[in-house]
Amino acid sequence: LLLLDNGRMAAWDVASQRVLWETDLKSPVVATPLVTPTGIYVADLAGITRKLSPASGQIEWEFGLGGPYEASPILTPDGQLLVLPCQVGTVFGLNPQNGQRVVSHT
Fold first, then answer.
1. Tens digit of each residue's pLDDT (9 = 90 or more) over 62-76
2. I need a labelling partner for 6 at 20 to 30 A (CA). Which of 22, 23, 50, 91 fits?
3. What single string gives the DSSP state of each residue in 43-75?
4. Please, which residues have CB within 8 angstroms of residue 58's CB and are 6 or more apart in sequence?
């Protein structure tokens, strides 16, 4: 994966040296995306967390955090909760499959 300027993300195939896909996130990303076999989780400076398809880069869901985000998303060991500590003081726990809020704490 490559994080490009202006909020763009791309997947690069090292063997063929070509871009497989490119997605416009519309806001810069400063944290390392979380990459799993079933999804790429990325949060941007506009406070939007997204799940992207690893195969196509298509955005599968979005969740607004209510403020800027500069940390990497974390997946619990059982894979059931995506944890996002937000700069506004709230920690969100999302369902990684559909982006629905499971829990939040301020």
1. 999 887 777 889 999
2. 91
3. E-TTSEEEEE-TTT--EEEEEE-SS---S--EE
4. 23, 52
pLDDT for the residue numbered 79: 94
The region, left, alpha or beta by phi > 0 then psi within -120 to 50, assigned to residue 100 is beta
Q: Residue 102: pLDDT above 80? A: yes
Rounded distance between C-alpha atoms, residue 77 and residue 84, angstroms: 15
**What DSSP element (H or E) covers 105?**
strand 101-105
d(CA 8, CA 6): 6
Nearest 5°: CA angle at 12, between 6 and 18? 110
pLDDT of residue 77: 95
